[in-house]
Specification:
Helices cover 68% and strands 0% of the residues. The chain has 205 residues and is mainly α. It has two domains: 1-61, Arc Repressor Mutant, subunit A (Orthogonal Bundle); 68-203, Tetracycline Repressor, domain 2 (Orthogonal Bundle), CATH 1.10.357. Helix 4 packs parallel to helix 7 (125-152), helix 5 packs across helix 9 (188-203) and helix 7 (125-152) packs across helix 8 (160-172). The longest helix is centred in the C-terminal third of the chain and has 28 residues, at 125-152. It is elongated, with a radius of gyration of 20 Å. It comes from Lysinibacillus irui. Residues 18-78 form the HTH tetR-type domain. GO terms for molecular function: DNA binding. InterPro entries: Homeodomain-like_sf, HTH-type_Tx_Regulator, HTH_TetR. This is TetR/AcrR family transcriptional regulator.
């Protein structure tokens, strides 16, 4: 039986290998984290993946689309991690501490503020809308947890959106370094304890 010709430009696919599209996205994300949007070209991504530039363009027609996908994938992973921690049965305050510690440890090399700044400058309105929708889904995971704890009486009644955004803003303090590069907190565990304690004072019943 004659084999159907490949669609023009479609990369060859090994059924036992990791999908090329996933490899491209993971590699590009690492490059964007390390070098920033402007300093990473599609050619750089192709070389790092050991594929042709045509392969990159087959999956991601523009660098903006690749950057959008990288941001969304990153926030989706963060959302999943948040959900897994918050669904545990341990006391809410302990879950929040674990969330901060794990989040800081896993994202210490990721400057989300800079990622979003570069997105605002370089992405189209539609791409930005996709990124913000993913960001909102991440916050909504925390909002729902806040609402559940309000209903249980663990924390005081209030605006869950405000609580969630305040908590995430406080968490970002864990990345702070002074002009000499010294961290505000020596370890993620210390940061988690201090941040959650500060947050807890404002939401406790």
């Amino acid at each position: 039986m004659k084999q159907s010709p490949r669609v023009l430009g479609r990369p060859r696919h090994d059924e036992n290998a990791k999908p090329t599209k996933d490899i491209v996205l993971e590699t590009a994300t690492r490059l964007f984290i390390k070098e920033g949007y402007k300093n990473v070209s599609m050619d750089d991504v192709a070389k790092a993946c050991n594929v042709t530039k045509a392969t990159i363009y087959y999956y991601y027609p523009t660098k903006g689309e690749l950057y959008t996908s990288a941001l969304i994938a990153m926030m989706d992973r963060i959302k999943l991690s948040i959900l897994q921690i918050l669904e545990q049965s341990k006391p809410f305050k302990e879950r929040l501490e674990q969330l901060v510690e794990i989040h800081l440890s896993a994202t210490i090399d990721i400057d989300m503020k800079n990622f979003m700044k570069e997105a605002a400058i370089n992405l189209s309105e539609d791409q930005l809308s996709q990124v913000h929708a993913s960001e909102n889904r991440m916050y909504q995971t925390i909002e729902r947890a806040m609402e559940m704890e309000m209903d249980k009486g663990t924390i005081r009644k209030g605006n869950s959106t405000f609580f969630a955004h305040t908590f995430m803003a406080l968490m970002s303090v864990g990345y702070f370094k002074d002009g000499d590069g010294n961290r505000l907190f020596q370890t993620e565990a210390i940061a988690a304890k201090e941040i959650v304690e500060f947050f807890w004072l404002s939401v406790q019943v």
